[in-house]
Amino acid sequence: MIEPTDQWNRRQLLASLAAMGAASLSVPVRGLGGTSDKRLRLGFDNFSIRAFGWKAPRLIEYASELKVDTLLLSDLDVYESLEQDYLQKVRDQAKGAGIELQAGTGSICPTSASYNKKKWGEAQDHARLLIRTAKRLGSSVARCYLGSRGDRAGDGGIYRHIDQTVRILKAVRSEAEDANVKIAIENHAGDMQAWELVSLIEAAGKSFVGATMDPGNAVWAMEDPMVNLELLGPYVVTAGIRDTAVWETDDGAACMWANMGHGTADWPAYVKRFGQLCPQASFVLEIISYKWSGELPYLKPEFWSNFPQARAHEFARFVALAKRGRKYQIPSERPTGSPSRELEQAQQKFDLEESLRYCREELGLGLRRA
Predict the structure, then answer these.
(1) What percentage of the chain carries pLDDT values higher than 90?
(2) Domain locations along the chain
(3) SS3 content of the chain, % helix, strand, coil (to 5)
(4) Which of 27, 37, 86, 250 could cross-link to 81 by cystine, CB 3.0-4.6 Å?
């Protein structure tokens, strides 16, 4: 263990932690799952092309055109109705196209600033609506989340919100189990690190609660995507995958979400480990490229007030990630021009389709060939 002295400054200590973290990357992890040669299913989250405002039927058509295996409909506004007859038609359309549908919504935590009580009413009723929608669609997945990094501030930090989310989940357990639906809580917008989400899942009941694993959001919470995968992998129900460029700054590190293959993650190693830990899950892309640039000023003491229980060995892995990273570069082929809805649509379409190509051609993902 390193014992800092007066001669050590914060940056020297971080450099040593980074060296420890980098070394740990070369140590094989055993006992968390076997190997799998089975090709992983490939899909996308409709939020990747949100600028189009498409409803479920058009999204299924587009997913069919792209020959993906899975479509995650991550919000309830994507449907023209939540009634049985309409959702049955959506279900039949997806089945005819050979596409697995997954259902989702936003926050179910009543104390989070992200929860919209005016729109959804009581949080447990919102959770029940999600479960009912998933069942009608034939989805075994019900994706949702707690909140955002802002929920880490204030008295009790993120832990009071975790307690409230667990309470809501336990209140709807019987409905989820009767519907044969697994609620998949996302590590969302920097709200929880992986170990915190694991504690939530275990407290609620892992028989009916799992994880929506998002490596892009992991970076927002100062977490190496590989650390996030190692911890959440055994709990994964679905995913929200994107790449992130991470690089060092004077105050710590900066991050920018990027198209697949343009960031800092080691995707061949990630996909191999994904196949070992959660081969049953779809590799679902949620591409939000070049829209979020965040700084993680961990060299400033006040930054740590929102991470009072951060784990040093995991933070060391993040420092190592930043040290080997570089500032993002937007692909030269990406559409440019004056800001407009049409440009935003063209950029989102380019980002998603380029990312899907990378996943197929470089990573060997997907059951269906484009």
Answers:
(1) 87
(2) 30-242+266-288+350-361
(3) 45, 15, 35
(4) 86
Task: Quote the tokens at residue 351.
Answer: 């980002």
Tokens 């935003």 locate to 344
- Report the predicted TM-score, pTM, of the whole model to 2 decimal places: 0.90
Going from the C-alpha of 229 to that of each of 144, 234, 311, 327, the distances in angstroms are 18, 9, 16, 23
- Which of 243, 338, 253, 331 is CA-nearest to residue 287? 243
Beta bridge partners of 184: 143, 210
Contacts of 118 (CB under 8 A, 6+ apart): none
Looking at the predicted structure, is the pLDDT value of residue 27 above 80?
Answer: no
- Mean of the per-residue pLDDT values of the chain: 91
**Straight-line distance from the first to the last Cα atom of the chain, in angstroms, rounded to the nearest whole number:** 51
Q: What confidence score (pLDDT) does residue 3 get?
A: 37
Residue type, 50: R
Please tell me the total number of residues recorded for the chain in this structure. Answer: 370
Q: Report pLDDT digits (tens) over 178-237.
A: 999 999 999 999 999 999 999 999 999 999 999 999 999 999 999 999 999 999 999 999
Measure the CA–CA gap between 269 and 227, rounded to whole angstroms.
12
In contact, 11 and 311? CB cutoff 8 Å = no
Beta bridge partners of 241: 285
Q: Which CATH number fits domain 30-242+266-288+350-361: 3.30.450.20, 3.20.20.150, 3.40.50.10490, 3.10.580.10?
A: 3.20.20.150
